Here is the input.
Amino acid sequence: MLDSLMNQVGELVLTRNRLMQLVSGLGGVALQDGGAAQGTLEALKGLVPVSRDLNHITEGLQDQLLKTRMQPISTIWGTVPRIVRDMGRQLNKKIRVVTEGQETELDRTILAALKDPLTHIIRNSCDHGVEMPSDRLANGKPDCGTLTLKAAQEAGSIVILISDDGAGIDAARVKAKAVDMGVISEDAAASISDAAALQLIFHAGLSTAEKVSNISGRGVGMDVVRNAIEKAGGSVEIQSEPGQGTTLRIRIPLTMAIISGMLVKCADQLFALPQMSVQELLSADSGSPHWCKVAGQPFFRLRGQLLPVVGLRACLGLSDDQVSDAHGSIVVVHAGNRRIGLFVDEILGAEELVVKPLGMHFHDAVAFAGCSILGDGSVVPILECNGLIQNLAIPAEAEMASDIAADEAMQDGQLEDRQHTLIFKSASQHYAIPMLLIERLEKIPATRIEKSADREVLQYRGEVLPVLRWNHILGKEQDDVDEVCCLILSDNGKRMCLQVDAVEDILETALNIEMKSNDALFIGTAVLNDKATEVVDVFELLKLADPDWFDSRNNMAAEGRRSILFAEDAPFFRTMLIPVLESMNYEVWYAPDGEAAREILKQQIPDVILTDLEMPRLDGFALAAWVKSESRLAEVPVIAISSSPPADDDTQRRQHFHAVLSKMDRQGLATCLGELHPSHMDPVCGELAARNDYERPALVGGRPL
Amino acid sequence: MSDSVQHERESLHSSEFFSCRVGQQWLGFPVDQVLEVIVQQQLTPMPLAPPVVLGLINLRGRIITEVDVRKLVNMDENETGKSTHVVIVQSGQGEDVGLLVDEVGEVAAMDMQHYENTPDTLAPVWRQIGEGVLKSDDRVTVIANVDRLLALSLPEEGTAGGLGDATVEQPLRH
Here is the structure.
């Protein structure tokens, strides 16, 4: 019943697409045909709002119907306590289950797809994660192990965390095993970090379990888990700390019924790639000096790395044309653990696709995720990147390791502080904005930006994004143009749209700020391409779009989050530092002065205290002295920040502080916190934060595109 | 779709069959498994598909796989012009599949007096898909089992992949 209703709405969406296409086509014809009867023109104009209404109604209906397909995750979590209890009895272990976010809803097809991988992971955790009660007691843990399941919604996805407080996974053993199995070379093993090594767990046939039990062998089957999750359009990663436990993080889309896809053309046929697996698009002409061949395989040089490129034609057996001497574009996709370039003839653009299943003849066709119907009624196959790559004999393992190593190198800062920066122009002045948070660049008709109450919004992939116009921010008038250039920024699960006049360039460069700015919106001025360029502080921009941007940090990150009490009276530094702290995965308790901080401390104990020295009512010195005099707080480290810190040798005034830092020293702060709570920070954010300082700003808290 | 033939699908016990021609051979399908007949329309070829699979068609928002019956029964390429009729049949598992044939005949009652088991002299492929034959004055019609015909069109490794057994053992009721 629900499925047939869904099909009907699917058809309605397709009809809507068709109508929209026709209407936009008509507009063009009418304009060209200057001599068309005035009446016809009027009638056409009348059609536009009608089709827009239809568009809204359809979208609403589609949303509502999608909601009816949603079921709470508790429908598949219900059996977990029993599985765990049974296993506990079998293994003589004590394990309790804690669930959070049971009411989180997911599309039922996705729930069904998740059931088996979840069970597998839980069995793994019980069997290999949680230790025997005697071992636990010996290690100073309670004899009863805890398995925590958490689910929460983040933008268009659901994030599920499954953690145990067991023995954790020894990265060194994973590496040794991987080398043993020939999955990666010894050199590669030496160069990859522990975090990256853990991901090797998902590799087929890798098990570090000394003995493989009948219940599960950690590693064996984890590749199956990953495949199942990726098949449902999700991703999975693992974090583990020896002695502390293991956490699996699964990210999965809310629904698979409608996805956003990238249409490409290859051998005169259209194909769609799920937007989820598309990382970036490159233009790659045959003459491009970026092409190179290694061991007969074509590669494309991309920002200092070699991107393996395969032709979509070859993947699909359409023809075995060599890719490197043709015209076309490269779609950089994420498949499994790898990044790979798919060479296509042409990229046509993005479209919302109603996913339809393929028939019985394609049950084993791993290269396809389904198919969909386009606006003109034609059928387009939707490709499945993992499966597509499977069809090819690429020495996957060696390459994966080198990819991971290369990514590490990036993160380790071997490429120094270079980062991608987008340059845009407004009234002959150049502005720079780091690419890190820019999700996409879009050219859209100016009419797509709509007025809603006192602000402007853009409907973008089923979301309503706040729109900021750069000219308005600068207090200038926005010119009337037909088409505008929009940067879609995304961070912390939220998106916004920044409309600019024109994008000039994207550079990979080190931003050397020559002159600091007094305007909070700018970090300062840098010279890029021989032009003075104002560097935009993206965080300020995000806050302009939504003052609450950073306040509703996702509840998910609460997992294993530490708390920091932050006492600071100056709003400027408060707004500057809170996002930084949050990006390091701290829960920030904010106090506007020392006295307020003391009130908080009477109630709760944070993991660390960060305080300004000069504050009204109770200053930082007095606060620290009081903290150290309270026995229950004495262990909490206090870090002071100040615009004029006391001299290094002023031990009298420094005595209560773990460290005293300059307010401008974001890097020092990151390092200091990193030393206090090693491995606490999310590795990516941590690296970024550590690389960041005020003189040479990188972005904090973002994730790489 | 001017010549579309819609049937009442309620009659589970099919005593009627729908005939169509492939090459020189007439085929009959149980009426309750034939949904409609359409004229050939825009077809999206699918790479990596078995050779008998012509591609996908959009039938009023439903996506249907189209199979070339001529190729399936190892006949040569079309001798007279292009095949233009697609018979939409429903498998035992409820999936609709399009079968490209050369000509469509009519719906006729199953005359049990002229019904015989599939003779051994027929080519193996016909024996595989045929339930029996119906002889009339001017022609011999092979009454086909839709599910066995479809099973034959699946990729070879695919037959083991889960759709297998139930589809093959679907008895045809007369």
Remarks:
- Chain A touches chain B through 28 residues (CB under 8 Å).
- The longest strand of chain A covers residues 144-154.
- The two ends of chain A are 40 Å apart (CA to CA).
- Chain A is about 35% helix and 30% strand.
